[in-house]
Structures are given as C-alpha cells and as structure tokens.
Amino acid sequence: MVVNLFGKLGNWLRRRRRPLVRVAVVLTVIAVAVAYLLKDPAPVGYFTSTAAQDRFRAAYREAMTDLPPPDRTLDVRTGYGVVRLYHFRGGTDPAAAPLLLLPGRASASPVWADNLPSLLRLRSVYTVDLLGEPGMSIQSRAIDDATDHARWLSEVLHALPEPRIHLLGVSFGGWTAMNLAVHRPEKVAGVVLLDPVLVFADLSLEVILRSIPVSFRWAPRSWRDSFASWTANGAPVTDVPVARMIEAGLQAYVVKLSAPARPSADQLAAVDVPVLVLMAGSSRLHDSGEAADTARRTLARGSVKTYPEASHAINGEYPDRIAADVAAFLAGA
C-alpha cells in the first residue's frame, strides 16, 4: 500500500513537472524583479531620516542609563568608519587583559546592562557598537565579506592600549568575535560565545521566515515587538528600554553589510586561542544541540556548555551564571 502510494505520487509529479518548472521560473523572475526594484544603491548603512535618527538616539540614551557610567568614551577611526566604544574600569588587576563585549544584530552597547555589574567584578570591560549596525558607530566604507568584518574590528583592537583582549559576543556578536579569531587573531587572548549564530550551525527555517516581514521598515512596530519576543521564547519586550532601542533601530536604520558566512570546519579547527561556547538549549534560532556538537568536534582549544532552559536572550537571562563561567575560563586561559 505504501509502495503504491509513492508510485501514484511519482506519477503525479511526472505529470506536473512541466507546470511546476514554469511556476518556479515565473516566481524566480518575479523575485529578481522585486529585488531589483527594491535595490538600494547606498554602499554603507544609514538612518532613513533625521527624525528616525533622533528617535533612535533618544531610545539609545534612555537605555544607556541602565549601564554604570563609563569612565571613557572612545571613537576609533578605522578604514571602514568611526567605531564607538565605552570603557568601564573593573577587576582588581589593572594589567589583566580586558573584555570586549560585542552585541547582536540591530543592537548596541546598552544590551549589556544586565551583564556589566558581574563582569566588572572580573575585569575592565569595553563595549562596542558594531560598525554598520544602528548605534553610535558611523560606517563610511562597504563591508563586503568576512575579511572586511575582521579588518575593521582588528583595527579597533590595535588602536587600544592593551596588548591582549578577550572577546565576548552574543548572537551575531558571537559570529563577529569568532570571525576575528579566524582571520585576524593577533591581539585576541580568548573568545567567549553566547549562543552565537552561523558559527557552528545554520539558522532555523522558522527564524528566516519570521524575520522577512520585520525586515521591511514600513512593518508596524507590533510585528517587530512580536519577533523580538519570539526570539526570547515569549518574554515581554514592551516597556523595556533596550527593546525600545532595538525596535527603533530596526525601523530607523538600513543595514548594508554582507551576510555572515559560516566558517568551515577547517577554519574553526585552526583557531589557536581558547574558546568558551555557552549555548542556549532552548534557542529558537538554530539547533543548539547540533551547534554544541560541532563546537566540541572542531575547536582545538574549546570548552562547550549548554544552558538547557536558556532562550537566545541568554545574556539577560543568566548574567551571574555567565560571569561565573567566564571567570573560570579567564583563570585557565
């Protein structure tokens, strides 16, 4: 019976093949035409208007009030634009290599509000607004591939006075950190990755489909709030300053960056710095089990842990646990 069913299905597909091919061709032509009509010739990211930029910056300033006051604000000029960093003095050993925190896509330094108090007990900390994302960094040159992503961040590290720096990145910030370790590891002392995307596993089909509607600037705010809440496994995002900042950035800023390319197994195996991977076991963005297995199999100097109940918003859900794991990692790095 099962064989007969598959036989009938095969016959139907053979009869329908030509119409299906025609439909596929038509859809492809339509998709290419729409992409051409919507093509934005600008080579770098930009705010859509002064009013939109003002709205984002107001949300950014409000979200920054949840952080301890930085002792230094730095604007580092690179070949790809001016990069905004904040320095927070911490720890007990001034000579210890600091942490540089890299936020996820469409976020910026305020996303680390929950993490800074516990991390500052360990080391001094820099936060950075990623170049080409909504924030206070200003992109001036196209970032077309993974090597460009690594170059601008390497230039930032080389502009800082410390000889070695530990990177700690969440989500896309995790990809950015690992991408630097792959291509430009000179000043990298170690890497901590919080549920990194496109490093050890591909994005889930569901997150790709859900992200399409909110990628349009004309999408209502409720769609963006709903998507942000979904990535955090249903956690509320209204009346949260950092969530308002992220929503404002999604609406106000046009990102013009190359898509992150997942590093190969050989590239990961060649990374010669210690790496701590903290996966969110309940992340909806990818298969965290597959990602953890890949990390264990490929990293020569890697340590991998999974927080079973954590969503992709792992940094805000488990700040003290993350700090404890980071402390152990730094002690052995």
Can you give a write-up of this model?
The chain crosses the membrane at residues 20-38. The chain has twelve helices and eleven strands. Strands 2, 3, 4, 5, 6, 7, 8, 10 and 11 form a nine-stranded mixed β-sheet that branches. By secondary structure, it is α/β, with parallel strands linked by helices. It has two domains: 1-37; 49-332, Alpha/Beta hydrolase fold, catalytic domain (Rossmann fold, 3-Layer(aba) Sandwich), CATH 3.40.50. Helix 4 crosses helix 5.
CATH architecture designation of the largest domain: 3-Layer(aba) Sandwich
**Strand composition percent:** 15-25%
Shape: globular
Radius of gyration: 21 Å
CATH class of the largest domain: Alpha Beta
Question: Main sheet?
Answer: 9 strands, mixed
Order of helices and strands: HEHEEEHEEHEHEHHHEHEHEHH
Structural class per helix/strand content?
Answer: alpha/beta
Query: Could you report the average pLDDT, rounded to the nearest whole number?
Result: 85
Transmembrane segments: 20-38
GO molecular function: monoacylglycerol lipase activity
GO biological process, one term: acylglycerol catabolic process
GO cellular component, one term: membrane
